[in-house]
Amino acid sequence: MTEPPRLVSPKEDISSLFPDQTPAAKHKDLSGQFSSVRKISGDGNCFYRALCLAHVESILVNTRALHRFKERIMETERELSSAGFDESSFKDHLNTLTNVVEQCQAEDQEEMLLRLFNDKTISDSVVQYFRLLTSAYLQNHEDQFCNFVEAPNLKTYCKQEVETMGMECDHVDILALSQALDIGIHIVSMEGQEQQLVHYIIPEGTEPSLHLLYQTSHYNVLYPQPNH
């Protein structure tokens, strides 16, 4: 019986992203800045899965950041409630997320991260919580975001594009989730014709806790070279 495809891979050397090509300028630039990559399944949920895994991984080695994230997660309950979500629609997903953080603290972190994020039920539950939180934050801050969505109204956009599993995320969703969790995200884009990589820090001016590679509408997790 064939095993189901992995939702997240172990860390791989950065060169695994371009095995069959003579490295172009962008690839050399990427290799100079990042040593390894963790590949995320391309199922439409890659951004949310990548963000959660990368952030949890980054805070496990930083007690203060870990404590702050746990507090923030508890506070997000209010965000969801004030947007009109019934507790029954998110409580189980929230419990899953807090359990993931607790288990990763207690066990061999790398091994446990891989095990939990490759368990489809657990991994998808965490993704669903992040989707609901993104939707709640967008709706609670409608004035900030309403002009940036292509839909009859923000609620419709959230229902169809944000809360639904398998729907790819947009820049506005990334900004909303980063603000809701109070974390900085560094996105390295391979897109476009330019020879250089394009770098985005979201929200602008923050210190990022994680690094994501954006290539052909897909997100993977990046790990910087030790001197970066």
Describe how the helices and strands are arranged:
Elements: E1 8-13, H1 25-33, E2 34-40, H2 46-59, H3 63-82, H4 87-106, H5 109-117, H6 120-140, H7 142-145, H8 154-162, H9 171-181, E3 184-189, E4 198-202, E5 208-215, E6 218-224
Parallel strand pairs: 3-5
Antiparallel strand pairs: 1-2, 2-6, 3-4, 5-6
What brief labels describe this structure?
228 residues; alpha+beta; 3 helical TM bundles of succinate and fumarate reductases; 9 helices; 17% strand
Calculate Rg over CA atoms.
17 Å
> What sort of overall outline do the alpha carbons produce when their principal axes are compared?
globular
- Identify the CATH architecture: Up-down Bundle
In CATH, what is the class? Mainly Alpha
Q: What is the domain tally? A: 1
Give the distance, in angstroms, between the N- and C-terminal Cα atoms.
43 Å
CATH superfamily: Peptidase C65 Otubain, subdomain 2
Spatial order of the strands forming the largest sheet: 1-2-6-5-3-4
What's the total helix number? 9
CATH fold group: 3 helical TM bundles of succinate and fumarate reductases
Helix content: 40-55%
Which stretches are low in confidence, meaning pLDDT under 50 for 5 or more residues running? none
| Largest sheet descriptor | 6 strands, mixed
Mean pLDDT across every amino acid position: 92
Counting DSSP E segments of at least 2 residues, the number of strands comes to 6
What's the SSE pattern? EHEHHHHHHHHEEEE
